Amino acid sequence: MSNAFDSSKPIFLQVRELIEDQIVNDQLKEGDQAPSTNQLVNFYKINHATVSKGINQLVEEGILFKKRGIGMFVAEGAKQTLVGQRKEAFVDNYVRSLIQEAKKLGISQQEIIDLIKNTKGSEG
């Protein structure tokens, strides 16, 4: 069976990222009910324990919370938390290496800014 998941990273992380993306993109808002474990298992045809692992991480971090007998819901402040985490990851994964490479090439901060502004798809 094929599914929409990428074999290069664990599926539980991809399940987690799927829900995170829905929160960041306002498809799921604070207080909204998140997809149930069973819905995700049935839709993506993946193991229940795998789905649970991804969802439980979000619960442990306060992104989702459980209402016993009802389901999982998006916690207050979840989007703000996720956006903050993603900004930090963006700096760690992209900006630091960009600055390091620019230094090696003798590119100034202003040149970096100009390159970003003039790159197709950038805003500003």
UniProtKB/TrEMBL annotation:
HTH gntR-type domain mapped to chain residues: 9-77
Superkingdom as given in the UniProt entry: Bacteria
Organism: Planococcus wigleyi
Entry keyword annotation includes DNA-binding: yes
InterPro entries: Tscrpt_reg_HTH_GntR (IPR000524), WH-like_DNA-bd_sf (IPR036388), WH_DNA-bd_sf (IPR036390)
Gene3D superfamilies: Winged helix-like DNA-binding domain superfamily/Winged helix DNA-binding domain
Lineage, broadest ranks: Bacteria, Bacillati, Bacillota, Bacilli, Bacillales
Protein name: GntR family transcriptional regulator
Entry keywords, A to Z: DNA-binding, Transcription, Transcription regulation
SMART domains: HTH_GNTR (SM00345)
PROSITE patterns per UniProt: HTH_GNTR
Annotated Pfam families: GntR
